[in-house]
Amino acid sequence: MKNRDKWITIAFLVFILVIPLVTVARNMLPQQQEAGLTDAEKAVLEKNGTLTKDEEHTGGQAAAAQQSVFPAETGFARLQRSINNFTDGLFGRTKLIAFNTELTSLLTGGTYIESTQTLKGKNNMFFYKTENDGHPIWDYMGINHFSEEEMAAIAANLLATREHLGAKGIEFYTMCVPNKEIIYAENMPDTIARVNEVSRGEQLADYLLAHTDLVFVYPKDALMANKDKIQLYYSTDSHSNMVGSFVNMQELFRIVYGTHAEIDSVKFRTDVMDYAGDLVVMAGLDEKYSIDTVYAFEPDSADEAQYHDQVLLFVGDSFGGFLSQVCKGYYREVYWEDARDFQYSMLDRYNPDVVIWERAERYCEAFAEPIMIK
């Protein structure tokens, strides 16, 4: 018994000491770190905007620009960043994450996985449980509603933005894309209780409808009406797919232009049938759950009656990638900019006739930021 305990102790010490030492040694060598995504997965995520802008934020000119805008790092911040960089590059990190996730799944009969970012729901559907990239679970639970003052501030900002752009001859519309948890609530784990079924995105939409004449599109009802026809959000990813994006844009067209097209009236090409999205990649489960289908909208199939001979500037987040791709079937020119990178000078660069400002529901407080007013 004593020998067994001794060997277990030695094995444990070797395990916790060797991995950091190998990590340090490997980081000193001129070789690439482990990749969390395959080239095929990166290509898909770049298409819908998940990776492209984030990567720009981590280096090159963007990093230099940040240094000139933000105050110098404190000693603690540098220490924290060094620790984060070390753990991100930990030797065997993805394998360890996958092992831990699989172990907790096995011990709970497949009903739970241990992950800081990913929540496994029913029917092999995964959800985003981050608290560092919005609060999608709080949105689902209905525990983070806006105050009246906060909604009034958002309304004032959007009205001022519309007036400002209108003076330049630019039409202005807004869209808030519902979180996946809201549309596929039936697949959420029973352990996550809903305090209020009205999320803050819906709360904000109701407020703006009652108190302003703004075009603020929250396409929950349209998504709910179509979700039984075909899947509208990826099972393994936090984003809506291109079919869901088509439904979202058609709801905007219905409200703004009075026109509408059904899903079966246009064509979607099947690009990939074994896609593993961001949620399973973060949990180290991408090899096991490569189960999603990637659809690509074919702009040539768009109804010509819905075409607008205008230049559209789409300002949004990662959901905006697919949304802007759909728009290419309906506008003469379409440009997409990440809201984090948007600069007022871009209005002169693109000279748009229409600006659509989009935010995913988990970011909807950003509508209070006056990013389009000089």
Element order: H for helix, E for strand: HHHHHHEEHHEHHEHHEHEEHEHE
Structural class by secondary-structure content: alpha/beta
**Form type:** globular
Helix count equals 15
**What's the total count of β strands?**
9
Q: State the end-to-end CA separation.
A: 74 Å
Amount of helix: 40-55%
Radius of gyration: 23 Å
What profile does the largest beta sheet have? 5 strands, parallel
Walk across the major sheet and give the strand order.
Answer: 4-3-9-7-8
Give average pLDDT, whole number. 80
User: In percent, how much strand structure appears in the residues?
Assistant: 5-15%
- Low-confidence runs of at least 5 consecutive residues: 29-37, 47-113
Descriptive report:
With 374 residues, the chain is of the alpha/beta class. It has a domain of 249 residues. It contains 15 helices and 9 strands. A 5-stranded parallel β-sheet has the order 4-3-9-7-8, with helices on both faces. Helix 12 crosses helix 14. The longest helix is centred in the first third of the chain and has 26 residues. About 20% of the residues have low confidence.
What is the fold's blueprint, element by element?
Layout: H1 2-27, H2 39-47, H3 52-56, H4 60-69, H5 75-88, H6 93-107, E1 118-120, E2 126-128, H7 136-141, H8 148-167, E3 171-177, H9 180-183, H10 200-211, E4 216-217, H11 220-226, H12 242-257, E5 268-275, H13 278-282, E6 292-297, E7 308-316, H14 320-327, E8 331-338, H15 346-350, E9 354-360
Parallel strand pairs: 3-4, 3-9, 7-8, 7-9
Antiparallel strand pairs: 1-2, 5-6
